[in-house]
Design brief:
It contains no helices and four strands. It starts with a strand and ends with a strand. Helix content is 0%, strand content 62%. The mean pLDDT is 94. The chain has a four-stranded antiparallel β-sheet with strand order 1-2-3-4, with no helix packed on it. By secondary structure, the chain is mostly beta strands. The chain has one domain. Bound molecules: zinc ion. Zinc ion binds next to loops.
Length: 47
């Protein structure tokens, strides 16, 4: 499971229902919902 910085919680939390998509720069864009508040979060992962 990945973690992302949540703007609402102002902290790092695990991502619920994460989906990853390969970005142009070779990294992976991981998107999902914050496990704490349910807000949308996104983070980049190196491939
Ligand atoms: Zn949150």
């Amino acid at each position: 499971m990945s973690t992302a910085y949540c703007m609402k919680c102002e902290g790092k939390h695990s991502i619920n229902g994460e989906t990853s998509k390969k970005a142009k720069n070779g990294a992976y864009l991981v998107r999902g919902k914050c496990s704490k508040c349910g807000g949308k979060v996104a983070t980049f992962k190196k491939g």
